[in-house]
Design brief:
Helix content is 36%, strand content 13%. It is of the alpha+beta class. The chain has 4 domains: 84 residues, no CATH class; 76 residues, no CATH class; 51 residues, no CATH class; 164 residues, no CATH class. The strands form 4 sheets. A 6-stranded mixed β-sheet has the order 3-6-9-8-7-12, with helices on both faces. A hairpin with a 2-residue loop joins strand 4 and strand 5. The C terminus is likely disordered.
Amino acid sequence: MASGIKNWWTFARWSDEYEQGVDEYIEKTFATKSQGDQICCPCEICHYRYWHRRNVVRDHIICNGFVPRLDKLFELGEDNKREKVTVDHNVSSNMNDDIEGLLHDTLREGPNEDAKNFFKLIEEGQQELYPGCKKFSKLSFTIRLFLLKVDYKLTNVAFGAILELFREVLPDAKLPSSFYEAKNSLKALGLDYSKIDACPNDCMLYWEEHADATHCHVCKTPRWKLNDKDDMDEGKTHRVPAKILRYFPVKKRLQKLFMCPETARHMTWHANGREKDGYLQHPADGQAWKDFNREYPKFAEDPRNLRLGLATDGFNPFHSMSIVHSTWPVILINYNLPPWMLMKHEFLMLSLLIPGPLSPGNDIDVYLQPLIKDLKDLWEFGLETYDASCDKRFDMHVALISTISDFPAYAMLSGWSTKGEMACLIVIMRPNLIG
């Protein structure tokens, strides 16, 4: 620096040295790196993602702080580079410095394998459907076909026949060759689900250690529907499960929230973008959130760690009041997002679809087992995730802090009776962490 102030960003923001360093940085950057009258803002909020004018950049750096980065700063000398790296990682002269942690953080920059594979699939899926087609890509066309299949109850054979017709009409189009190829392409994006057989009396799941069982170990009911004769096809016997739970795995879908830079930026809104004016505008303003932070300070250190809510209720999928049927979806709500996003349908995550025709009642915990297992893993061990907003990896941990339901469903989820003399419960404001 011309003034001789080195590492000016380490001074207090209200100091003359910091303000002088900001002014000199802006002058030099606008002289060498500007596009028109704007530069990439290096404050802790914008983090080199947004372009602003001179006065806005100055205000942001002074108010939000400065993030020095070797690949974004103007060219420094070799001595200054070494000094900057030292400051970036808060390396002191203390002999107890966490050198292994520093190297680990350095090696974790950039996309991990899951992110690379996802970006590759997205890139391939964004190819033009046929030369000159601007409206549809291969991926968007495949998704649109699947939506039509669901809306109009098309069979797999009909779906394949439609694909074959399109291939004949548009020979140059990049279309899936069959229904199964189209299904696998969406499965690679994480848009798949697992079928788990269940006891029709809600006693158990044929899962993990009971995956190969043929009868319920509680009520001895057969796993398969009893038919007069087996459905034979090429010497194979097709057995139909009496009841099927559909589980939509959550780990990869939670990872993908951070792979889009725009969404990843909103995932820390509760900590960096929320106006803290004392009003209750978001769950982060509530007492339960604050109590959780005090009880689990290590989890609260990283604002990217996810806090989820769980909502469930029964509904009749047949739109007919004359048919008694109750199917129970279990939906996860992402509380990291700002309030104008967290209740939008694209951010509500379906995790379980518990089949009818009857409500699972107090046995709903049987069906929650796969979800609880994944949530416990995410709470205890975390999951390496790529954050596209800062081009770094981190260990994402997840906590389930609340449930949303009506009173009967509340009794099912909590295991407490909501009937009779003690129906009105005294609720203690405390995070409801599953596990």
